[in-house]
Design goal:
Length: 467
């Protein structure tokens, strides 16, 4: 397939499937918490508007959550099909952590999701609110375990190397779970999920405000979303900076690629805003730089020395071009989110939050930007870890299954066709739900039970069945 070997095809397949999957949890994590806030406000204030918004968004959540679960199942199978050597070598560490996600997050979500979707009239307001909170908690716990696994692959600690090369857990699982990069990555990713959701909610509210500025439901969701963007975007920028400092300490080659520093700078490194990486000549062509700003950001000293990729062996360098641009996409969108939040504050101060058409158009345009940012951040993280699957311990070239390229290519083509068909249809349906404005007395999701083992006999047949 285009002259690619089995290893590259396996990497493309994993990247393609995980990119599709990451979109849905990034949305459902934030949306579950938003639903809990809406229901809590309804219980506290008694305003039916919050209940209408809850019923409006819970239908969208159900579809997004289902697509996230289905797309996530595929990821586990790929560990056995395309990455069996990685599973053998690192399975003793990552296997239990992924099992903990199922035993905690999935079980918690499965136990309360049906109550949240269909049980408000059956269990009472307070218990239903508790179920909604449990689903929101379950999405966070799921992120906790998955990020713990991935962070351990980035900054492995607490393990021992067996005689056969397997990575075995050491005496303390806490050292594995709470590895050096995990707290930073957890905070950064969860905040990204909240921002992603707020931008989607804000875009939907803005879309309906452009059609009817007096719509109270659109006003409320837009106002709540803009408060979230204005308050959380600066926090996310700070959290991202702290994450970058942690990455510099534990994965310096990744930061070198992000910054485009092919050469070391003993007297202060410039911040390269834009340019074209030239891997052949190991330089950034047409670079637009801010002198010594990179040292100021990363070392808090404009004259602090920063090492470059010239200190890293060529076969241990990450692909600079991909990491360089994905990092700039993520950071650029982050500052665009900050700008939207500040713009909304200005409009709110001028009492034009619901009348500013240009702000509403900008919010609609920014609606999908959170998804682009989380995908760009994931690419920065994962491609920047190359050439390792477990950083410093296991090379990607040593991790894949002994498969021929045609076998991997066939499954990749199948994934592409099925994913675009199935998840394309699901995404279209979500957009269809968003296109309709929320309304007073918003109907609940259809609570008609679905039985997989037959149906209850009709009343006329029950006596005969009893005889």
């Amino acid at each position: 397939m285009f002259g690619l070997d089995a290893l590259m095809l396996a990497r493309i397949q994993f990247g393609f499937t995980v990119s599709f999957h990451f979109i849905f949890p990034a949305f459902s994590i934030g949306l579950a918490s938003y639903l809990a806030v809406l229901e809590g406000l309804w219980l506290r204030t008694g305003k039916e508007l919050y209940l209408d918004l809850f019923r409006y968004w819970v239908k969208i959540f159900a579809v997004a959550f289902a697509m996230g679960v289905v797309s996530g199942i595929v990821m586990s199978y790929q560990f056995g099909t395309n990455w069996s050597v990685f599973s053998t070598r690192a399975g003793p560490v990552i296997g239990p952590l992924m099992a903990y996600e199922v035993l905690t997050a999935f079980f918690l979500e499965a136990g309360f999701l049906g109550v949240m979707l269909f049980g408000m009239k059956k269990v009472g307001k307070e218990l239903h609110f508790a179920a909604t909170c449990m689903v929101a908690l379950g999405t966070f716990i799921s992120a906790f375990w998955i990020l713990s696994v991935n962070s351990w692959m980035q900054t492995p600690t607490g393990f021992e190397v067996a005689a056969d090369g397997r990575l075995l857990p050491g005496p303390s699982w806490l050292a594995i779970i709470f590895n050096p990069s995990f707290p930073y990555r957890l905070v950064h990713t969860v905040i990204a999920a909240y921002l992603t959701t707020s931008l989607v909610v804000g875009a939907v509210g803005a879309w309906h405000l452009l059609r009817d500025r007096t719509n109270p439901h659109a006003r409320k969701m837009f106002s709540m979303a803009m408060w979230m963007a204005a308050i959380v975007a600066p926090i996310q920028i700070f959290a991202g900076d702290e994450h970058g400092l942690n990455t510099l300490e534990h994965q310096p080659a990744k930061v070198m690629a992000m910054e485009g520093h092919y050469d070391s700078h003993p007297d202060g490194a410039p911040l390269i805003l834009f340019g074209i990486p030239n891997p052949a000549e190991k330089r950034i062509d047409y670079a637009i730089e801010v002198p010594k700003a990179s040292s100021l950001i990363l070392k808090h000293d404009p004259n602090a020395p920063l090492a470059g990729l010239d200190t890293i062996p060529d076969d241990r360098e990450p692909p600079v071009s991909v990491v360089f641009w994905s990092f700039r996409v993520m950071v650029g969108i982050g500052f665009a989110m900050l700008g939207l939040g500040l713009w909304s504050l200005l409009a709110r101060f001028r009492r034009r939050l619901y009348e500013s058409s240009w702000l509403h158009r900008a919010a609609v345009l920014m609606g999908p930007s959170g998804f682009v940012a989380v995908i760009a951040g994931w690419i920065t993280t994962e491609v920047g870890r190359q050439p390792y699957t477990v950083y410093g311990q296991l090379l990607t070239s040593q991790s894949h299954s002994p498969l021929a390229a045609p076998a991997v290519a066939a499954s990749l083509v199948a994934f592409v066709l099925v994913y675009f068909a199935v998840f394309g249809a699901g995404t279209w349906y979500i957009l269809h739900l968003m296109h309709r404005p929320a309304q007073p007395h918003e109907p609940e999701p259809d609570a008609t039970p679905v039985r997989t083992a037959g149906i209850t006999p009709a009343p006329a047949l029950q006596p005969a069945a009893a005889e």
